[in-house]
Design brief:
This protein is mainly alpha-helical. Among the domains are: 31-252, no CATH class; 264-386, no CATH class. The chain has helices at residues 52-61, 64-76, 81-95, 107-121, 128-147, 167-176, 180-193, 196-207, 216-231, 236-247, 262-273, 287-296, 302-314, 319-336, 340-358, 362-386, 409-416, 420-432, 437-451, 455-467, 476-482, 497-504. Helix 9 runs antiparallel to helix 10 and helix 14 runs parallel beside helix 16. It is globular.
């Protein structure tokens, strides 16, 4: 497909043909606007609306076909963005079991933060779209959970809770022993006695220790914490109980505490390697080291990935150069086998890198970085188990294409409808010719709003569009261009959300 072609207005096309313009989304003005301040946790968050339980029950009990209409009416009557977001998260953790894997139907919980991130980055007129999509998605996951046994989180057993001064120790002992009942009681006590930062640090530690559920444990840690930062820590206890239960998932296996299982082996190498590392934030940026690690991780084992990464850090390489290699490895996999595994290499790396930047204990930060490195070979092995993996490699040093006019944003996404590899090349050419990354990112995000039919559309797009800015500038174009392999295209079916909201507001 040629880079030039039809000049039909891409941004001005209707729903079926592409993105909606601001004018075509004008009916959203009937809802109160969501300002940036509305989406941040205020200093007086303790005064958050006390009637969240009725709102959660309303979400639980409203039929799927009525949920958009019902919540549109509540929003018009004064229910805030944060209240709807809180109801989404709490309804998910109470009604959807994170078993047998921290994924599948549990994406109703995992996607809440991804929808929130999409809302944060959207214009004020668009910010309700991801949240209404998540409301509808919760109802589908709730129905699936009912079919699988109708699990509901029980009240915590207060009699088993350790005293506040022993909560941290009791939680660590339970998690180390993979003891679900003890962990459930201990995490409630921990939530009531420890700071949010301390709790997150512990959860990040356990979220990265094993590769089970293709990275969803680490994803849940990051997404839960980030959502709680918006809705308020007062809602943390049921979320942390769900999270601890998810982190202890090892379905169909013996107790990992007393076994030598493949998903846990890199963790033991990591624990040894950490002892020789200094403080994060030191070292030199080295693009050559990034390329060397990227090449090493293509063929090594998870344990060897930890060793190679630790040696780089011991040799004075900055963590940023390690992070660049991690993002690029995930981006390379998108090209080699576009699909569910490579998608999760990107979303798990996003979560682990967020946790690395957020955790405050030196040891936890190194654990997150080294385990992220271990996950890369794990993902490659998972891709190989699913079928053919192309032998292509992400291009880091190619000369910019100066022939002809660079493609427009419209042409890039139209190309994705026919040829993903061509769309990736077009995106790279656009960025290297000085095209505005923000324009490209905004267009991709609006396509997700209109075309996104699955939680992975939101999880993936929110991750890669955020991570573009986390890479060193010289590596941003090759990373983002490979996202074209999984981002929606204008010719994908509409998700019907815009029509539902428009009808609800009629």
């Amino acid at each position: 497909m040629r880079l030039s072609g039809s000049r039909r207005s891409f941004l001005g096309a209707g729903v079926a043909g592409g993105l909606l313009t601001l004018e075509e989304l004008g009916f959203l003005r009937r809802l109160p606007p969501v300002s940036a301040a509305d989406m941040e946790l205020p200093a007086d968050a303790v005064r958050f609306s006390p009637d969240i339980e009725p709102l959660v029950q309303l979400l639980e009990e409203t039929p799927r076909g009525k949920v958009v209409e019902t919540f549109a009416a509540r929003v018009r009557a004064g229910t805030s963005y944060r209240e709807v977001l809180a109801a989404l998260l709490l309804a998910g953790v109470r009604n959807v079991q994170p078993r047998p894997s921290v994924g599948f139907k549990f994406h109703a919980v995992l996607v809440v933060n991804s929808a929130h991130l999409a809302s944060l980055a959207a214009s004020e007129s668009d910010r309700w779209l991801p949240i209404f999509w998540a409301l509808d998605y919760f109802k589908s996951s709730q129905a699936r959970d009912v079919q699988e046994g109708d699990w509901t989180m029980a009240a915590v057993d207060e009699s088993r809770m350790p005293p506040p001064h022993r909560a941290r120790q009791a939680f660590q002992q339970a998690m180390d022993a993979w003891d679900e009942e003890a962990a459930d009681a201990a995490v409630s006590a921990l939530c009531r006695s420890a700071s949010a930062h301390e709790v997150f640090d512990l959860m990040a530690h356990y979220g990265c220790r094993d590769y089970r559920s293709i990275g969803h444990k680490a994803i849940y840690v990051a997404n839960a914490y980030r959502t709680l930062q918006c809705i308020g820590w007062r809602y943390a206890e049921p979320v942390l109980r769900s999270l601890a239960y998810a982190l202890l998932n090892h379905t169909g296996e013996p107790n990992p505490a007393a076994s030598d299982l493949e998903p846990d082996r890199a963790w033991r190498v990591t624990q040894t390697a950490i002892e020789s590392l200094g403080r994060p934030g030191t070292g030199r940026i080295d693009a050559g080291a990034t390329r060397e690690l990227l090449d090493t991780w293509r063929t090594c084992t998870p344990q060897e990935a930890v060793d190679a990464t630790a040696r780089m850090l011991q040799g004075g390489i900055a963590a940023q150069s390690i992070s660049d290699a991690l993002f690029l490895s995930a981006g390379e996999m998108l090209e080699q086998q576009p699909g569910i595994i490579s998608l999760h290499s990107a979303t798990a790396t996003n979560a682990l890198q967020y946790a690395y930047r957020t955790a405050y204990r030196r040891r936890t930060r190194w654990e997150l970085l080294l385990q992220n490195a271990a996950f890369i070979p794990h993902f490659r092995q998972s891709m190989q188990s699913r079928g053919r993996v192309r032998e292509t490699r992400i291009e880091l040093d190619r000369e910019p294409d100066e022939q002809g006019q660079p493609p427009t944003v419209e042409e890039i996404f139209r190309a994705a409808s026919q040829d993903r590899a061509h769309a990736a090349r077009a995106m790279r050419q656009y960025l290297e010719a000085g095209g505005q990354a923000e324009t490209l990112i905004d267009s991709a995000r609006r396509l997700v709003f209109v075309k996104g039919n699955d939680a992975h559309d939101y999880k993936f797009s929110s991750a890669v569009l955020e991570d573009y800015y986390a890479l060193s500038p010289q590596f941003r174009a090759p990373f983002l261009s490979n996202a074209a392999y999984l981002l929606p295209s204008p010719d994908d079916p509409d998700n019907g959300l815009v029509a539902q909201i428009q009808q609800a507001l009629a």
